[in-house]
Amino acid sequence: MVELKTEKSIDAMHAAGQVVARALTAAREAARVGVTLLELDEVAREVLRDAGATSPFLGYRPSFAPTPFPAVICASVNDAIVHGIPTDYRLRDGDLLSVDCGAELDGWASDSAISFVVGSPRPADLRLIETAERALAAGIAAAVVGNRIGDIAHAVGRACRTAGYGIPQGFGGHGVGRRMHEDPEVPNEGRPGRGLPLRAGMVLAIEPMLIASGKDGYHEAPDGWTLRTDDGSRAAHVEHTVAITESGPRILTAR
């Protein structure tokens, strides 16, 4: 069931989204060579605490997970696509890092992710990240009243495939509201004009995930959470929480 949010509820979700935006900005600024992923998690925790927000990630345990998630961010390095658990791994020069974060504030949630390179970037990594951001922008542009879920999926997928990148099948965006994950699912590839009609008041997390090699294969790491590319190639993940309004898409997690 898809809940349509009121303008007041969307404003409340925007407040939560701005906490997420600040947490991601702080994590990116702290991400230097030699810093651990656990230290980045603590940076994000501090932002959430200061805002009086809680984390929908911490303790989250969906049906596929062997254990509850132990952190407030997902920190996915290099060949990790999504759901990376922060550890004592120290960032190295040239690492491609994707950070995903959520916040719950006054009963409403928002969710966002960024990808960036620590230290000296490889041109190929910059192209991968730029394409992910273009795919996200294309998906957001398609999130308008009168379109369908398939239009968002097609816009994201076309941007990824045209550039020669792979897409991990079975993972994509989702509805957001009182909970971090709500209906509907928002695939990263699909046919235009298909799927659920988009209505004002729907709030969606749109989140492209790209694999550099152009192949789609991935597997679950032994921790039961992290998804890694099968061929060891690098991956990028970006995300915004977006409200569909009569005047167009409103990005609630804009930084």
From TrEMBL:
Name the Gene3D superfamilies on file. Answer: Creatinase/methionine aminopeptidase superfamily (3.90.230.10)
List the CDD domains hit by this protein, alphabetically: MetAP1 (cd01086)
Q: What does the Swiss-Prot or TrEMBL cofactor note state?
A: Binds 2 divalent metal cations per subunit. Has a high-affinity and a low affinity metal-binding site. The true nature of the physiological cofactor is under debate. The enzyme is active with cobalt, zinc, manganese or divalent iron ions. Most likely, methionine aminopeptidases function as mononuclear Fe(2+)-metalloproteases under physiological conditions, and the catalytically relevant metal-binding site has been assigned to the histidine-containing high-affinity site.
Q: Where does a divalent metal cation 1 bind?
A: 100, 111, 239
Q: Which cofactor does it need?
A: Co(2+); Zn(2+); Mn(2+); Fe(2+)
Keywords annotated in UniProt: Aminopeptidase, Hydrolase, Metal-binding, Protease
* Binding-site list for substrate: 83, 181
Q: Known InterPro entries for this protein?
A: Creatinase/aminopeptidase-like, Pept_M24, Pept_M24_MAP, Pept_M24A_MAP1
Asked if the record carries the keyword RNA-binding, the reply is: no
Q: What class of enzyme is it?
A: hydrolase
Cite the Peptidase M24 domain residue spans from the record: 12-246
Keyword check for Amino-acid biosynthesis:
no
- Name the chemical reaction catalysed here: Release of N-terminal amino acids, preferentially methionine, from peptides and arylamides
Recorded E.C. number(s)?
3.4.11.18
Q: Name one Pfam family in it.
A: Peptidase_M24
Mind listing the GO molecular function terms for this protein?
initiator methionyl aminopeptidase activity
Residues the record lists as binding a divalent metal cation 2: 111, 174, 207, 239
Q: How does it assemble?
A: Monomer.
Q: So what family is this one in?
A: Belongs to the peptidase M24A family. Methionine aminopeptidase type 1 subfamily.
Q: What is this protein called?
A: Methionine aminopeptidase
Native source species: Streptomyces eurythermus
